Amino acid sequence: MRPPPCPQEQDFNVLSGFITPGSDFPPPHPLDASITADVLDPTEIVGGTPERVRIVETADRWAVEVDWCICGPFAAALCGCWCVQVFIDDIDGVGTTHGLLGSARVSVDSQRIVQVDDTSQRCYEYTFTFPAGSVTPGVYNLVIVITLATGSCETPGPLLHDTLGYAEIPVLVFFDENSPFCPPPDRVTAAS
After folding, report:
1. Total structural domains in the chain?
2. Cα(35)–Cα(160) distance, rounded to whole angstroms?
3. Are the CB atoms for 20 and 35 separated by under 8 Å?
4. Domain assignment present for 41
5. What is the C-alpha to C-alpha distance for residues 168 and 86, in angstroms, rounded to an integer?
6. Quick one: DSSP state of residue 14?
7. pTM of this prediction?
8. Alpha-carbon distances of 148 from 23, 72, 105, 137, 161, rounded to whole Å
9. Is residue 127 in a domain?
10. Is residue 36 part of a domain?
11. Which band of pLDDT confidence, cut at 50, 70 and 90, is reported for residue 40?
12. Pick from 48, 132, 140, 150: CA 20 to 30 A from residue 191's CA?
């Protein structure tokens, strides 16, 4: 096996998917959607924007930016309220933070409609900001789930058919620089 390049670029890939009522039709779909997410360090500004990270010091505040778009001939007619939720789960068996970290409601009408040829598009962004200490040290994955409810954001109704998106950041490490991160010696295998 060849060693990795040094320095090595960070991998900011996100696993994602989105279904809509239009997903059941053959392409081009009458309604499509996309989603992505990033973890940001608002204490480190690079080129005027917060730095993208996958490693967070527990003593720092941090943020999750979620971006999503809907497009297709039916995008202009869509109405309702987006529910954006951020979930965290430890994958190391050590981190104690788990479950819902935050949720937000975003009105479909909060973004203007952009007409591109015979199709419409609306794109949204929501940023969750979390305080220092909101996650204990450990290795986690982060999942963002978006659903679309009928009605307004003040009084949302049931979900709009099959409109659901997800984005997963598969590895997110939180560390405390004042605490050991390595397991106790009795759980460590020494290299020979």
Report:
1. 1
2. 17
3. no
4. yes
5. 10
6. -
7. 0.89
8. 15, 16, 10, 33, 8
9. yes
10. yes
11. very high
12. 140
